[in-house]
Amino acid sequence: VNGTIVIPVVVNVIYKTAAENISATQIQSQIDVLNKDFNAQNADFSNVPSIFSGVKANVGVRFELDQIIRKNVNKTSWGTADLMKKSSGILPTSPTTKLNLWVCTIGNGILGYAQFPGGSSSTDGVVIDSRYIGTTGTATYPFNLGRTATHEVGHWMNLRHIWGDTNCGTDYVADTPTHNTANYGVPTFPHYSTCSGSPVEMTMNYMDYSDDRGLYMFTEGQKSRMLSIFSAGGARNSFAK
Ligand code: ARG
Ligand code: ZN
Ligand code: CA
After folding, report:
1. Region 118-125 average pLDDT
2. Does ligand 1 have an atom closer than 6 angstroms to the CB of 59?
3. Is the pLDDT of residue 175 over 90?
4. Taking the model in full, what pTM does it have?
5. Does ipTM surpass 0.90 in this model?
6. 174 Cα–ligand 1 center, Å
7. 8-state DSSP, 74
8. Which GO terms describe its molecular function (predicted)?
9. Per-residue pLDDT tens for 139-161?
């Protein structure tokens, strides 16, 4: 019933190797990135091209590290079928009031994945591969600026990929341009879409696939789509206080 949304974050670290057992410092570096990116406090926010300055947004959601839970297991990689959230891994803690983040080796080149609002609370949260979380320790270039978690938390707050997962598809957000498909690396600006109206693509939007240093903004339309899930009747209203 207060204006600001503050999300407690439970970090579940599942490791076989010492490298996978990432430090509290590395975890806190990720929390810090989330707080910057969701509050327009990221240093690269000023790099947003002027054609997008009218829509770039301060989302205004804060994240607080609640607890770190660690488990040593004898498993090399976990895939994307939620096994790490079951008893062979670590069950979520208070998933209707806390964002659970699992850190483990996913495999198959997957950096992270998320559950959209409205799914089962027993699997709710975000999974980030231990080499692509935070900005220090095992964080690996070009995904070493914490933007995988920013992108996945965007999904957790109901955002779709900016290209709508099909050629010139929709992300259900009016102020993001229509993209042909995912962008990779750090595209040279301006990169034109061949979709209707040939708009300049917003390749620096967190919901594209550019490298971490190429991602630095959400839009006002994405902000309203995210905040609506916390309002009365929204799928994540249990997080609002
Ligand atoms: N789910 C996406 C993947 O695993 C995450 C992409 C994040 N992109 C980034 N630049 N960190 O490929
Ligand atoms: Zn995604
Ligand atoms: Ca759009």
Report:
1. 98
2. no
3. yes
4. 0.98
5. yes
6. 23
7. S
8. metal ion binding; metallopeptidase activity
9. 999 999 999 999 999 999 999 99
Nearest CA to ligand 1 atom 9: 148
DSSP 90-108: -PPSSTTTSEEEEEE---T
Judged by DSSP in three states, 121 sits in: helix
212 burial level (CB within 10 Å; 0-12, 13-18, 19+): buried
Burial of residue 97, with CB atoms counted within 10 A of its CB: 0-12 exposed, 13-18 middle, 19 or more buried: middle
Residue 100 CB partners (closer than 8 Å, separation 6+): 9, 10, 12, 85, 92, 93, 124, 125, 126
Q: Which atom of ligand 1 is nearest to the CA of 215?
A: 10
**Ligand 2 center to residue 228 CA distance, Å?**
20
**Confidence band, pLDDT 50/70/90 cuts, at residue 3:** low
d(CA 206, ligand 3 centre) in Å = 13
Q: Best substitution site from 148, 159, 184, 215 to test ligand 1's pocket, by max atoms within 8 Å of Cβ?
A: 148
For residue 1, name the pLDDT band (cuts at 50, 70, 90): very low
What residues have CB less than 8 Å from 105, skipping those under 6 apart? 16, 20, 76, 77, 78, 129, 130, 131
Find the helix or strand (DSSP H, E) in which 114 lies: strand 112-114
